[in-house]
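Work Package 3 (structural annotation) set out to generate three-dimensional models for the target panel prioritized at the project kickoff. During this period the team completed the workflow that converts sequence records into discrete structure tokens, so that structures can be stored uniformly alongside our sequence database. As a representative example, we reproduce one entry of 330 residues exactly as it appears in the project archive.
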Amino acid sequence: MIALGESKTLSKYQRIWTLLLAFLALHAAGCITIKKRTQLKKEEILTQLVSSEADLLASYNRQVRAVQSLQATVDLIPSTGTTYSGVIEEYHDVNGFILAQRPATVRVIGQAPVVAKNIFDMVADEKGFRIYIPSKNSFLTGPTALIRPSKKPLENLRPQHVVEALFWPELTPITNVLFEQFDFNVSRYYILTLLRQVEGGRLELARKIWYNRVDLQVWRVQLFGAGGLLDSDIMYSDWQPVPGSANGTASAGPAPAVEQTSFPRDIRIWRPQDDYKLEIKILKLTLNEPITPDKFVLEQPAGTTLVHVGDEPSGTQPGVQPGAQPGVQP
């Protein structure tokens, strides 16, 4: 015989089990969701700065105007792809120098580590490019606007791809711009999407500028070709002030407070249509110092093979002129 106290205890346990079984059944059916809360450490919580389309456009144009010329000692690191493999396949990275001047003049010299021997020398302006590769005894020339990728990796080398990453075009008030806020996990971004007008009055994607809301610096720039095809995807990081540089112009009287120019020390270029990635690590940087015109002169060395990139029909061997005269313009 069960005592009265024992009966009440059994009844209590039965009710608990009944409620527990009902709870498990509801949870299995998706009627009850258990939320797990993860507490972030204080140092992991990033402050999200607030801005507007107008302020970001103004900041972008200030950066454009603040960088008129550049001289840098760099490490050039091919990340993936095949384009650079024929030139620097035996190196993990290449020491180099970059000279660049607006609107679109650039010289890039790559040297083998330790021995400081040039493995390529590239010059480009708005019209054309010239590339000397000593190990191949080749001198390549072609129009800057050439967009047809070659099946031969060496012919996809373009110094202009570097200048696109260093110098941005100024945006005018009539530029078609879309403003977007993009959130991804704990990261927050503002995106300015630039549109261009094409034949028939249609608008198509031209450029996307991503701003990291942690510091409101440009984090990424994407350049799009005809039909919205992604030509370049450029990532910027490690922004640092440049000693001796500042935004603004000198004026009489007490000097007003001006914003010092900053520049990224790590730039990663991805050219999906050309099948290569290139990281530029800036070790030493000077902005806006005069660069004499002779620094952008690259003559063809005697006895090298001259290759006119882009002259030949697609799928055929490029025109080669052994022993061509030095200094021939493309």
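The radius of gyration is 29 Å.
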